[in-house]
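Re: weekly structure request thread

Next one in the queue (228 aa):
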Amino acid sequence: MKKILCIIAIALPFLSSNAQDCKAYIPYEEGTVTEITNYDKKGKSTGVVTQTVTAVEHKGNNTTFSVHQVVGDPKSKDEIIETDITFKCIDGTFYIDMSGYLDQKQMEAYEGMEVKLSMDEINIPSSYKVGEQLKDGYIRMEITGGPMPINMTVSVENRKILAEEKVTTPAGTFDCVKISQDVVTKAFVSMTISSVEWYAEGVGIVKSETHRKGKLMGYSELTKFKKP
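Done, posted below.
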């Protein structure tokens, strides 16, 4: 069992005094468990991500959802990676923790080093229109304490609401908002991956697909959704 500890700086908008209802694309109830199964392009399972909502805190117009995430590899059942991530509702907008865009297996290589993270979070507003462009975001890593310093940035760009659709997975049928985006990783080399994600209010990601140069790389599905 391995845990990754990082220093994080997050850029969020100024909190106004006018609270608004927020549609959270994460479970609302503490103790809710979701399971996402990842598959390669041929439909073979490549890993399971289990998320448990550990706390829901309300303070004025700010609601914080704390989530404990466990990433498991079906080829090595004893080897898991645990992280804690945070989602927020502020002024009617739901903010997504950019830490989810980091490769947690790759993060193992930096164990024992100082990892400084800064991020500008992507979001989903409560009120939107199909075809609307959404805010871009990024997460930047500065790693020191190793043979040489490492800088890496993952940017989420060209985000667009494509549709509202019903999606059925092994966990059930959900009303979703469908969002497309490009994920650009810049480190020693640059790489761009296109993805489509289906989010359901009060649930989170129900389905996702990743493509590179127009070809399917893999996909994910919600395979378990259990309320306390």
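The chain has one helix and 15 strands. Confidence is low (pLDDT under 50) at residues 1-20.
Next request, please.
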